[in-house]
């Protein structure tokens, strides 16, 4: 009572999943940190609208809901064309990580402390 049942898709319903109508996105145009093409794993990508990580099935992001749990996310069903090999994707990811590492400081820089002022009651009148 009061518990919500989640609807699981039957194999027949899985075949009826449609794309969102937006033009397909090439995997080479997506930032490498928003894509996962590691060998031995299912391809996955971050949703362009909400940022949720979803697997790629049948060449599209698997459907998902927004934060309210009712409305379908506009980015679900986005077609993504994999035009990269896993080796090429790993190379671009490694280059992007090294590039970001050069822009980040290794250690924090200490800010100089402001000088401590004399309390008003210790000031002498001249």
The computed structural class is alpha+beta
Report strand %.
5-15%
Largest sheet: 4 strands, antiparallel
List low-pLDDT spans. none
User: What's the helix count?
Assistant: 2
Instruction: Kindly report how far apart the N and C termini lie.
Output: 83 Å
pLDDT average, as an integer? 80
Strand order of the largest sheet: 2-3-4-5
Name the quaternary structure.
Answer: single chain
**Radius of gyration based on Cα positions:** 26 Å
Provide the fold topology:
Blueprint: H1 11-14, E1 25-26, E2 35-36, E3 44-46, E4 53-57, E5 60-61, E6 80-81, H2 86-103
Parallel strand pairs: 1-6
Antiparallel strand pairs: 2-3, 3-4, 4-5
Question: Describe it for me?
Answer:
By secondary structure, this protein is an alpha+beta fold. The protein has a domain at 17-103. Helix content is 17%, strand content 13%. It contains 2 helices and 6 strands; from the N terminus they run αββββββα. Strands 2-3-4-5 form a 4-stranded antiparallel beta sheet, with no helix packed on it. It is elongated, with a radius of gyration of 26 Å. The mean pLDDT is 80.
């Amino acid at each position: 009572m009061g518990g919500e049942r989640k609807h699981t898709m039957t194999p027949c319903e899985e075949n009826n999943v449609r794309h969102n109508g937006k033009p397909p996105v090439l995997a080479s145009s997506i930032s490498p940190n928003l894509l996962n093409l590691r060998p031995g794993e299912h391809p996955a990508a971050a949703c362009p609208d909400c940022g949720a990580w979803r697997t790629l099935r049948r060449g599209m992001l698997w459907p998902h809901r927004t934060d309210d749990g009712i409305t379908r996310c506009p980015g679900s069903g986005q077609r993504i064309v994999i035009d990269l090999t896993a080796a090429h994707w790993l190379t671009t990811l490694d280059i992007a990580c090294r590039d970001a590492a050069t822009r980040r400081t290794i250690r924090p820089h200490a800010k100089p402390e402001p000088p401590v002022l004399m309390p008003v009651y210790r000031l002498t009148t001249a």
